[in-house]
Design a protein that fits this description.
alpha/beta, about 30% helix, binds guanosine-5'-diphosphate, about 15% strand, binds magnesium ion
């Protein structure tokens, strides 16, 4: 699997998506540090919201193969500057979270993300695991066995006689 780092303002849904991508039971807790595990690097929203901490984000981008810019579908404004994807020599994708919210405006979030320069955009409801598998598939490398495939293999009846 390729490694992804998730970036976005506080409350945009980074930690919830991380948990969904890891297949953990979703239990919300505020991120106060960077957890670097498996293939997902979750970052604090403060890094994206503060000018100097932005440099920390730039560094984390080099620890990953893919950078995921998150915008919640109901966010009132966009934090990412136009064309910011050119700042990093990694593949950058857009992720719109909270598509299930009643005040969600997915098209507006898509447009903001396109302005940053991303070409590929995923839509997720991390609470219901909607769209999360598509991101995992996107990160997949040759030879990777996906969680659902593993389960299928484990559940296969043993047809060989003992
Ligand atoms: N309805 C809905 N709520 C979400 C979704 N993703 C995150 N949330 C909620 O949004 C809040 C902030 O999420 P969190 O993952 O902590 O954001 P972070 O600060 O970017 O890590 C929490 O109350 C989550 O339960 C989603 O896709 N749909
Ligand atoms: Mg968080």
């Amino acid at each position: 699997m390729r490694k992804i780092v998730l970036m976005g303002r506080s409350e945009s849904g980074k930690t919830t998506l991380t948990q969904a991508l890891k297949g953990e039971k979703i239990s919300y807790h505020k991120t106060q540090y960077v957890n670097n595990f498996d293939v997902i690097i979750d970052t604090p929203g403060e890094y994206a919201q503060t000018v100097n901490l932005g440099y920390a984000l730039a560094l984390y981008a080099y620890e990953a193969d893919v950078v995921g810019l998150l915008i919640a579908a109901n966010e009132p404004y966009c934090l990412f500057p136009p064309c910011c994807t050119s700042q990093v020599n990694r593949e950058v994708i857009g992720i719109v979270t909270k598509i299930d919210k009643p005040d969600a405006d997915v098209e507006r979030a898509d447009n903001w993300l396109r302005l940053t320069g991303v070409k590929k955009i995923f839509h997720v409801n991390s609470k219901q695991n909607e769209g999360v598998g598509d991101i995992l598939e996107y990160l997949r490398e040759e030879g990777d066995v996906m969680p659902w495939e593993k389960e299928m293999t484990q559940n296969e009846p043993n047809i060989m006689p003992k």
